[in-house]
Amino acid sequence: MTEMVYGAVPPRDGEPILPKWWRTIDTWSMSCILMLFAVGLLLGLAASPPLAAKNGFDPFHYVQRQAAFGGIALLAMIITSMMSPVLVRRLAVVGFLVAFVALALLPFFGTDFGKGAVRWYGLGFAAVQPSEFLKPGFAVVGAWMMAASFDPNGPPGRLWSLLLCLVIVAMLILQPDFGQACLVLFAWGVMYFVAGAPMILLVGMAGLALFAGTLAYANSEHFARRIDGFLTPDVDPRTQLGYATNAIQEGGFFGVGVGEGQVKWSLPDAHTDFIIAVAAEEYGLVLVLAVIALYATVVLRSLLRLMRERDPFIRLAGTGLACTLGVQAMINIGVAVRLLPAKGMTLPFVSYGGSSIIASGIAVGMLLAFTRTRPQGEISDILRGRLS
Fold first, then answer.
1. How many CB atoms lie within 10 A of CB 75?
2. Number of structural domains the chain divides into
3. What is the CB neighbour count within 10 angstroms for residue 198?
4. Domain-located, residue 382
């Protein structure tokens, strides 16, 4: 689209794909992702042995699985980042349709693994969570719809994307999975804002979300229990939030030492949703701030590169993917430090979980593909030309 509308400087003829990919990729963002994955393995060595012993596995069973899932995720990230935006969009549409059908069939064939929410397909050797793969696909499909509305006589893409978003949110709430529903709604909102949405509409959407939350609190025991646990002034020390809060307090600035933490023996989800509590206890605030800095670097660098992008589809899709990654990390850490209600959401690339890490690898691969340097000039050149 960009080349047809604005024209482009011809690429170097005959340049090998790997040097061209390395020359155009955001190596800082990719390096941050690799460091996050390394931190995840490091924390997995501390957090997962107690669970492995409880389930009768080898002490490093979950670390080995995380390394295997991570290898697949990193391979998917690199391959996807080499693709053109058009190819990424085509594959995202196919992946989105598959994940959408899988999400719709969850009430009939899914399982909750005793956690009270039907979110997974049990495959015996692994479990698949369709919503993890739906998020990046929806960001690309929603951006494609919105970008189409900019074309002369184009379709009402913004309205279509809103209707699709509401259908997905409704299916996620029925599981119930309010955390993923909020992420999908946020991704649509931030893309719509970048696409030029009127503020009154965004305020109305926020009011509607608040109203929906009130209804959910009144009618969903699962939702109400988590909100009540968050609002209560006294945290039960025997709950996951209680264990996590105590671990963060014990860790202090530099932590209690490698392998010396105790929260991993008490938290059932120490290797997944509350992995940051293990990091805070054993390595202290220093490691937590480093993890936050890595996520912030990926998000901010991606947004800065997208600000120079001419193609509205690439700009919208990249913004949705970058902000979803950052907000998911913020929610996970916010839950652990009791700034947000419990959501059951993983920390991308750090928490254990095959669906989460592979889907995150695909999403970041798409983001790196969209933020690659292309011979198109700067968008500021266009703005100056229109003003002159």
1. 13
2. 1
3. 10
4. no
